[in-house]
Amino acid sequence: MLARRAAGDLYACRALIDDSEVEDSIIGFHAQQTVEKALKVALVLAGVELPHTHDLESLAELIGTSGTGLPTEIADMEWLTPSAADFRYEEPAALDRPAALAAAESASGWATSLLTAAKRPQPYPRRKTPKQAPPAPNG
Q: For the chain, which ranges sit under pLDDT 70?
């Protein structure tokens, strides 16, 4: 469900990014939500209980302690955190729209790869084949 909703936020971000009539706060919100949900996908896959937070830095730290490797480009997305609430209710500074979209795409792609790896059937360990008995002597 988180991955599906992250994909929806990413779609909205992509669809609206070039529309000058759409405020930065809307783009920032959907980019932040994409990243947040992607990080939460990683937490679910690691068996970590989801915290009720929009703070991307604390989510990234929690992922780091879970043993899941966090790609560098995703670890530095805390600048989007204010888009979850602050930008919605205060006058924000200008948003770097291309950077916000790139962050959302990176996080979404990473979450998708984690889900794909989790769904991939694990190979069975190779069994050692018993040595065959030598052929019986003719006789």
A: 85-92, 120-137, 139
For residue 17, what are the domain limits? 2-116
Amino acid identity of 6?
Answer: A
Instruction: Report the candidate in 56, 49, 66, 50 with the shortest Cα–Cα distance to residue 35.
Output: 56
Contacts of residue 51, Cβ cutoff 8 Å, sequence gap at least 6? 58, 59, 62
pLDDT recorded at residue 117: 87
Containing 41, the helix (H) or strand (E) segment is: helix 24-45
Helix (H) or strand (E) holding 104, with range, is helix 97-119
What local confidence, expressed as pLDDT, does residue 122 receive? Answer: 55
Question: CA-to-CA distance for 80 and 28, rounded, in angstroms?
Answer: 7
> Which residue, 28, 119, 24, 31, is CA-closest to 74?
31
CATH of the domain at 52: 1.20.120.330
Domain membership flag for residue 127: no
Q: Would you give the end-to-end CA distance of the chain in angstroms?
A: 70
Confidence (pTM): 0.80
Shortest CA distance to 95 belongs to which of 19, 24, 18?
Answer: 24
Is position 129 within any domain? no
